[in-house]
Design brief:
The complex is a heterodimer of chains A (273) and B (199).
Chain A: H1 20-23, H2 38-42, E1 52-57, E2 63-66, H3 67-72, E3 77-84, E4 89-99, H4 100-107, E5 115-120, H5 128-131, E6 144-148, H6 149-153, E7 158-163, E8 166-167, E9 177-179, E10 192-198, H7 205-209, E11 233-236, E12 247-249, H8 257-260
Parallel strand pairs in A: 1-10, 4-11
Antiparallel strand pairs in A: 1-2, 3-4, 4-7, 5-6, 5-10, 7-8, 7-9, 11-12
Chain B: H1 5-32, H2 40-67, H3 78-100, H4 105-114, H5 116-133, H6 137-143, H7 145-151, H8 154-168, H9 174-188, H10 191-198
Helix pairs in contact in B: 1-2, 1-3, 2-3, 2-9, 3-5, 4-5, 5-8, 8-9
The chains are: A alpha+beta (273), B mainly alpha (199).
Subcellular location (chain B): Cell membrane; Membrane
Main location (chain B): membrane
Protein name (chain B): Protein-methionine-sulfoxide reductase heme-binding subunit MsrQ
Chain lengths: 273, 199
């Protein structure tokens, strides 16, 4: 059961939102199965309360957030972001959450903190994909992701606790997930229990599985193809059925270049895909 | 009054027509009305791809069933299953062109040339197209012995289809492996023939 949240609204502007029914029924969350409809179908009994999110590592002030803290420790705001999946489909989603930078600041990072590592809950009893290798798509669990500290501190980087004005449904990463809108969707790790600040670059799940297909950075980049398909364009999931003309050009950094391009100055994005 | 063997065969043929067409039309109808999940394009591509593979397996099961297990009447359904396999493959390819890349011909051609699994799929399509055209009785008669030779290429099609499926998935390879295993079993019934080719 999702609940209504208190938050500051954002103006929609020119963007057309992906309908809520599609946002909550079509995504990848291999912990609940590999088909796009599996997360919705297999996660409805998922328990998010009690929950603990630990922030630790190279920090002066390690903190643990309990379930209620997730929605009450920071002022929540709406962020309408484009989500570009590495599989070349995309959505426009009204998230509700707070900036990861606020949470990091609260933990007081040491000057040695260069990277941020994230970890999803590991609970095979609740997550059938973790209990069964076939259902879980053969990836290793728990799911882990990572960012450079400057990427994590960018104002766009969001810790989402809701979408469409309500708490996150389990299939979308309840009770708290990362949203990094200029990177492919798999970077935006779900159902997070651990955030660790580190001196060195952490391993990431998809990179471990297929390093030639999924890099650490995973910035949306129309010029660097996935080995098995072009990334130059994408299909935007909205309404209209089979005949919807929904193929659009993919934008560098998913259209967030003004905010994030400076992070990658001097970096060869072909090598660091 | 007992039904004759001919009537029996006819009824099964009608059932095959009915199943293959109703399932296909139903999927497209749902997809057109946005009633096939969040991404009807993906759903249609999966349905037609898996459907074509299933029909290919069925049509290649016929001759072992006739030869080894003596279900002699099954031979009447082989061509029909093969033709429906082609129809599903055609729907698969046209749906990719019309709904996935949405008539971006440049992208369409690039993908087929640059992505090995797409290239394999396209080769399989071309072979099936030739098999379909030459399944017309008149052409078949004119081709005499070369008809059989040409139609042996279907063994290559099932190998290509297995690779196409295997390479198209992201990480869970169970389903493609099951299909590849079934394909190998079907090919194993023809091992003498295949052995002769490669000697």
């Amino acid at each position: 059961e999702t609940q209504a949240l208190q938050y500051e609204k954002q103006a929609l502007g020119q963007q057309v939102l992906t309908p809520e029914s599609k946002v909550i029924s079509h995504n990848n969350f291999y912990e609940f199965g590999t088909a796009k409809s599996d997360p919705f179908n297999n996660s409805q009994g998922f328990k998010v309360e009690p929950w603990q999110l630990k922030v630790s590592g190279e920090v002066e002030n390690p903190i643990t957030l309990n379930y209620d803290d997730l929605t009450s420790m920071f002022t929540l705001e709406e962020r309408i972001y484009r989500l570009r999946c590495v599989e070349a489909w995309s959505m426009v989603i009204p998230w509700v959450g707070f900036q990861l930078s606020s949470l990091i600041a609260k933990a007081k990072p040491l000057s040695t903190a260069q990277y941020v590592a994230f970890e999803t809950l590991e609970d095979p009893k609740q997550m059938p994909g973790q209990a069964n290798r076939r259902l879980g798509g053969g990836i290793s669990y728990p799911y882990v992701e990572g960012l450079r500290i400057d990427e994590a501190s960018n104002p766009l980087t969001l810790m989402a606790v809701g979408l469409y004005g309500k708490t996150l449904p389990p299939q979308n990463g309840a009770p708290i997930r990362l949203v990094v809108p200029w990177k492919y969707g798999f970077k935006s790790i779900k159902s997070i229990v651990g955030i660790k600040l580190l001196k060195t670059q952490p391993p990431t799940t998809w990179n471990r599985l297929a390093a030639n297909e999924y890099g650490f950075y995973a910035n949306v980049n129309p010029e660097v193809d996935h080995p098995r398909w072009s990334q130059a364009s994408e299909r935007r999931i909205t309404t209209g059925g089979l005949l919807a003309r929904n193929r659009i050009e993919t934008q560098m950094f998913n259209g967030y270049g003004d905010e994030v391009a400076h992070l990658y100055k001097g970096l060869d994005l072909r090598k660091n895909y | 009054m007992p039904i004759s063997l001919n009537q029996h065969t006819m009824m099964i043929k009608i059932a095959i027509h009915f199943l293959c067409l109703v399932l296909l039309v139903n999927q497209y109808w749902l997809a057109l009305n946005d009633d096939l999940g969040a991404d009807p394009v993906e759903a249609i591509l999966h349905f037609t791809g898996i459907g074509a593979f299933n029909l290919l397996i069925l049509s290649l099961s016929i001759s072992p069933l006739v030869r080894i297990f003596k279900f002699t009447s099954f031979i009447h359904y082989r061509r029909l299953l093969g033709l429906y396999c082609f129809l599903y493959v055609l729907a698969h390819l046209l749906s990719f062109l019309a709904f996935e890349v949405q008539f971006d011909w440049q992208l369409f051609l690039n993908e087929i040339i640059e992505r090995p699994y797409m290239t394999f799929g396209m080769i399989a399509f071309v072979i099936l197209l030739l098999l379909t055209i030459t399944s017309i009785d008149k052409i078949k008669r004119q081709m005499r012995k070369s008809w059989q030779k040409l139609h042996h290429w279907v063994y290559l099609v099932i190998v290509l289809a297995s690779i196409h499926f295997y390479m198209s998935v992201k990480s869970d390879i169970t389903e493609p492996l099951v299909y590849a295993l079934i394909s190998l079993i079907l090919l194993s019934f023809r091992w003498k023939k295949l052995f002769k080719y490669f000697r």
